[in-house]
Amino acid sequence: MFYTIDILGTIAFAISGVLVAISKKMDLFGVLIIAFVTAVGGGTLRDLLIGNTPVSWMKDITFTYVILGSAVFAILFKSKINYLRTSLFLFDTIGLYTLVGIEKGINADLHPIICIALGTITASFGGVIRDILCNEIPVIFRKEIYATACILGGVTYFLLSELPIKDDFVFIIAGVVVIIIRLLAVKFKIALPTIYSNTKEVN
Amino acid sequence: MFYTIDILGTIAFAISGVLVAISKKMDLFGVLIIAFVTAVGGGTLRDLLIGNTPVSWMKDITFTYVILGSAVFAILFKSKINYLRTSLFLFDTIGLYTLVGIEKGINADLHPIICIALGTITASFGGVIRDILCNEIPVIFRKEIYATACILGGVTYFLLSELPIKDDFVFIIAGVVVIIIRLLAVKFKIALPTIYSNTKEVN
Amino acid sequence: MFYTIDILGTIAFAISGVLVAISKKMDLFGVLIIAFVTAVGGGTLRDLLIGNTPVSWMKDITFTYVILGSAVFAILFKSKINYLRTSLFLFDTIGLYTLVGIEKGINADLHPIICIALGTITASFGGVIRDILCNEIPVIFRKEIYATACILGGVTYFLLSELPIKDDFVFIIAGVVVIIIRLLAVKFKIALPTIYSNTKEVN
Q1: Cα dist from C138 to A76, A105, C46, C72, C141, whole Å
Q2: Partners for B (CB, 8 Å, 3+ pairs)?
């Protein structure tokens, strides 16, 4: 199950990397690298922080093939994907990455709060590094509820773990929480307040 | 003693992260993340480079609480802090981080020069990554004497270690050197020359 | 032989870092740090990803001396170097870094494709992090054939390894491939297509 989520998230992240890189007029190599970094960035930072080296994608060549395949697909059908983007459920699976990160943190015997941080890093750092490489202030710091959804999903996971519920259900419920918060936030344009919300948006 | 410095430095760095993030109009999550990254960034890079994983802040939840507490405090009292900023001695303790890094380098049997580099990384990388995430050229590369103070403190540490002086004194003197150089530099606006000092400042 | 390449590449990268940092009006410390990071960045990321810690430059002080020496040299003779830049063969040796990275990947028992990725990271990440620290979109993502040369050199290496050719020859031929592709690309201004090549260049 974790593996399926990993693959789905990898596809979604790779495609999102391609779309941002193309909008920055990068060359073919740049587009592929941004796709790759966006897809593996979160998991790589997580692995480095807990000392799980060589990092995951280096030990399983499948991820490389999946990323290259997704990137080529996204380059060929870029206009269609941009159009479908808001309706593609695929992009909402990436929040589930959080749970993969939490699992690794638990296996490394870390504090629940640290596990949630690891989960959020796994799910969001790929996008952060994508934006840094593209010379943007990471979008996640400015207007997305995405990371908050990851954190709340993680909290749900640990709260439910205390109850006498089967592990699989805990996992599924936490995953559903992540996805629902994300979808609600997108639908109703909910965002965290900026600290100075009365000033105009910087570019 | 190292632990006290670590906690004080963590508070100072977290607050500085909050102030920069607010000036960039980030949302609440962005502000907290920048606070966190600024506070743990230097120590994390140091731990990764020497292979001390899971990295320090993951093994001691105290740092997470200290950072969140400092960040909330800074958000609530941001205008007062900005006003007090230049007179707060707290901010000058962060140079002492250098000594924490040097200690770790010595424990890992590294060359003194590498230890000083590690110390400087510990004390300055948090600010560097804060500026990168905020899409700025790191301020430390442009007009601060801060890193130079760290390096000179480190050199002092190793020179005094050769003399028959008790370890604790060596440590205290090196720490005082870091702080005094920093204070003098701020007071007299001393800065390293830019290579082309006759051209106008870029923004 | 790997060691000689490492030293030559370190010199070339350090000098390139100095030139970019000066053009950004950094102070002396900033220039030295950018030189250092550009020179060791690729190898450091490679070492972190495969778990080879403390990272290479920390275990061999020679690199630090070489970088500081090269940086001071570049600062003193910056105008001459800028003039000679296009004709300096030295800068073309850095593609050979790829082979150093591939070797490390093979020693860590990784898949050939991952080894090529490691090689390309070794050869190109220093430049990427230099550009990020200088607040630029990495030049490698926009108009250089450099990384492609590294990848093709890596592919050559693995293809020839299958044939009954002595290891040394395989190495030399792959290295020549990297250098020739790079030189041809520079001479004939070959670049990978951007995905939207009909739009005007962004700054």
Answers
A1: 24, 33, 18, 25, 6
A2: A, C
Please answer whether residues B138 and B165 qualify as being in contact, where contact means their C-beta atoms are separated by less than 8 angstroms. no
CA dist A145 → A3, A116, A194 (Å): 25, 16, 12
Decide: B24 and A138 in contact? Cβ < 8 Å. Answer: no
Opening angle at CA B146, ends B141 and B151, nearest 5: 100
**A147 shares contact with chain B (CB less than 8 Å):** yes
Count of C-beta atoms within a 10 Å radius of residue A23: 14
Tens-level pLDDT at each residue, chain C (203 residues): 678 878 888 888 898 889 888 888 888 888 888 899 899 999 999 999 999 989 999 999 999 999 999 999 999 988 777 666 555 556 666 777 888 889 899 999 999 999 999 998 888 888 888 888 887 777 666 666 778 888 888 999 999 988 888 888 888 888 888 888 877 877 776 666 666 533 333 33
The answer to whether residue C94 neighbours chain A at the CB level (below 8 Å) is no
Note the residue count of chain C.
203
Instruction: Please give the residue range of the domain that contains residue B62.
Output: 2-187
Instruction: Mark yes or no for CB contact B192/C75 under 8 Å.
Output: no
> Which residue's entry shows tokens 């002086």?
B165
Of A30, A51, A61, the CB nearest to C141: A30
Task: Report the SS3 class of residue A27.
Answer: strand
Those residues whose C-beta lies under 8 Å from the C-beta of residue A152, and which sit 6 or more positions away, are A177, A178, A181
Q: What's the total number of domains in chain B?
A: 1
Per the CB < 8 A criterion, the answer to whether C129 and C37 are in contact is yes
A12 within a domain of the structure (yes/no): yes
CA distance C186 to C77: 24
Is residue B198 in some structural domain?
no
Distance in Å from the first CA to the final CA of chain C:
40
Determine, yes or no, domain membership for B10.
yes
| End-to-end CA, chain A | 40
Domain annotation covers residue C196? no
* Alpha-carbon distances of C99 from A15, C122, C146, rounded to whole Å: 30, 9, 14
Interface touch B135/C135, C-beta < 8 Å: yes
